[in-house]
Each structure stands twice: as structure tokens, then as C-alpha cells.
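Notes continue from the previous slide.

Worked example: a multi-chain complex. Inputs as given:
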Amino acid sequence: MTFEEIYAGWSPKVYRLCMGYVNDHDRAKDLVQDTFIAIWQNLAGFRQEAAIGTWIFRIATNICLRSAEKKQKHLSSELPLQLAETPESPKEEKIEFLYKCVSELEEAERIIISLVLEGIPQAEIAAITGISEGNTRVKIHRIKQKLTEKFAAYENI
Amino acid sequence: MKTFEDLQDIWQSSPQINAIPDVATILEEVKKQHRKMLRKNIMVALLLAATAIYITILGFNFVFKFPTTYIGMAIVVLTVISGVFVNALLSVPAKTNGQIMESASSYLEVLIKYNNRQKRLLANYYGIYFIGLSIGMAMYLYEFAARNISFGVIAYLGTFGWFAFSWFYLRKQAIRKQQAKLNGMIEKLEAVKTGMDTSN
């Protein structure tokens, strides 16, 4: 698999994970970029015994977690960017709201629920996060409920 | 009322293609980072070479009688160079690229350990830096002081007065500021780690 193929197949998924984490288009783009730079640098070291999806999401997750170290740089530009974004259609509005709901959860919850929304199996989520499978199952159940309630509250407005 | 599956559909229908940078941009960025790294290495090599040339020129052009003068000069220069390196080490975010492929939970541990190590480095290094500079300057000035007592008194008083001010005021302030930043980072990472490990 070439880097270009990996990028074409996985960049939208990585972008969604990053958007759920930061809810900011520009920061999400930066995180996607950092993730794929790390993938490019480590591609030779990728061992086939792990699924490529697990490998890519591990890197993307760690890049998101590490972003706290760089966050300070972006704070000053955060507000004007947020104000400038106005969703164009009801569908986009829903997507934007879903990102907002996810980003309001705790850091670990954001990562887990983004992976669930992506349709990643529980065992794989456990392998990405390093949480035991039992614990992952409990967490997923709780976060799903939390997110559905948040979203329902929005729809009732 | 939307079910979770509806939310999944909304999620997977995003993003618009133009929201993501294209692959050429990513590859260009990779090249840019390589160039930046290379430039940084060249700069470090140039800095070391310039220092070596400077010391050599000083050594040949000014003939000092006491070996302490040369030793003092070398200690001061080495301390300053080490200061440049340690400062660079403290200002960069975690260089933990090797562990980026580990699970999130172990990666968080790596980041916490890294920040704690930075804290220890910070606490130990400032002491060594000032002691290095003081010993170096004391040895360097010894020859001049031996030649001219009044010059020696003024030079020693001025130099060590300044060091005392730096040690008791500037050093404490610098350590406090950087420690606060690192503590904030460690606290945040530990909170994420707890969020990941607890089952509630």
C-alpha cells in the first residue's frame, strides 16, 4: 500500500476523529497533517501483524493527546475562526453540532466515541486506547447515552 | 429523537472533500520539516565551530601567564554552550516520536514521564549553570586581579554582585515560570489518563 493510497482512504476518518477532539477546522487540519507526517515517517516500521486501521488510529489518537502541548499557539486565533464558520445547509449544521457535542465530552471520551461513530469494533478500540475490553464496553455504553441525550436536547430547541 | 445509528450516519457523511489538505501539501510539509531539521543541525555545528575558532584566536593572540585564565575561559564558554542546548531542550514539545505507535494509554505515560524529566532537568540545571559560570569567571579574572588589586576588587565585586542577583532573583523567577507550565501540562495529561483508566 502506498502512502497516497493510505492518505486517500484514511484521511477523512482521521479528520473526523480530530474534529471531534478539537471542534476547530484549522486545528483539525493541522492534526491531520501531523498524523500523516508521523505515518509517512513510520511507514517502513509498520508491521503487518497489526491491522493498518488500528495503527493509523493509534497515531492519530496520540497526536490529538499530544496537541495539548501545542494548544497555546492557537488560542489567540480561535475565536475569530469560530465566528467565521457558518454552516451552509441543515445537513452541515447537524454535522457541526455533532462535532460540538463530541468535543464537549472529556478527552478520553471524545476519542472513544469518535472511534465508535466511525464503526470501529470494540476490540480494536481497546487496542487503540490501551483500555481493557471490559472497561471499553462499559465506557462506550455510557458515552453513547450521553451523546444521544445531548443531541436530542439540541433537536428539541 | 435520533438513535445512535442516525448519529453514526451523520458522522460518516462528513467531511467535505475540501476540508482536508491534499496529499501534495502533506508531502511538501514532510520535506519542509526535513529541511528545517537539517538547517538546525547545520546551525548547531556552525555555533560549535565558531566557538572553537574564537577560543583558538583568543588563545593565540593574548598570551596569558596563568593556566587558570585559559581554564576559566573554557569553563565559561562550555557552560554557555550547554545553556543554549538545555534551553532548546526545555522549549520544544515532547520529542516522543518513537512511541507514537503505542496505545493511547501507554503514550500518555510516556508524555507524563517526559514532562517530569523536563522538570528535574530544569531544577538541576540552573544550579549547575550558575556554578559553572561563577567558577569560570573567578578563574578567568584571577590573573587580572593578581596584576592589579584595585581592578580585581572591582571586577570580582561587579561580577559576583550580578551573579548573586541572577541566582536569588532571576533564577528563581525563571524556574517558577517554567515549573508552572510543566505542572499544568502534567496535571492535564494525568487527568486524561485517569479518564481513560477509570471504568465509570
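Summary box: The radius of gyration of chain A is 16 Å. Confidence is low (pLDDT under 50) at residues 72-84 of chain A.
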